[in-house]
Amino acid sequence: MLRIEEKLKILADAAKYDVSCSSSGSTRKNNGGIGDASASGICHTYTEDGRCVSLLKILLTNHCIYDCAFCVSRKSNDVKRAAFTVEEVVDLTMNFYRRNYIEGLFLSSGIFKDADFTMERMLRIVKKLRQEERYNGYIHFKTIPGASEELVKEAGLYVDRMSINLELPTEAGLKLVAPEKDHESVRKPLAYVNDQIESYKGEKKLIKHTPTFVPAGQSTQMVIGATPENDFEIMQVADDFYRNYKLKRVYYSGYIPINNGNSLLPQIGSIPPLVRENRLYQTDWLLRFYGFRLNEILNPQHTHLDLDIDPKLSWALRNPEFFPVDINTANFNAIIRIPGIGKQSALKIVQARKFGRLHAYQLQKMGIAYNRAKYFLHCADSPFILGHPSMEYVRAAILNEGNRKSRQQDSAGQLALF
Amino acid sequence: MYYLFDGTYLGFLSCVFESFERKEFNVIPLMQKDYRIALFAETRTIVTDSRKALRVQNGLQERVGKAGTMDFYRAFLSEDRKAWLASFFILRQTFGGRTDVRQDYGNAHVLYFSQTLKKVSRERHRMKAFIRFSKSSDGLFFALVEPDFNVLPLISDFFRERYADMPWLIYDVKRKYGLLFDMRQVGEVQLSLEETKNTTIPTVVTTMDERDELFQHLWKQYYTSTNIEARKNMKLHLQHVPRRYWKYLVEKK
Question: What is the pTM of this model?
Answer without folding.
Answer: 0.92
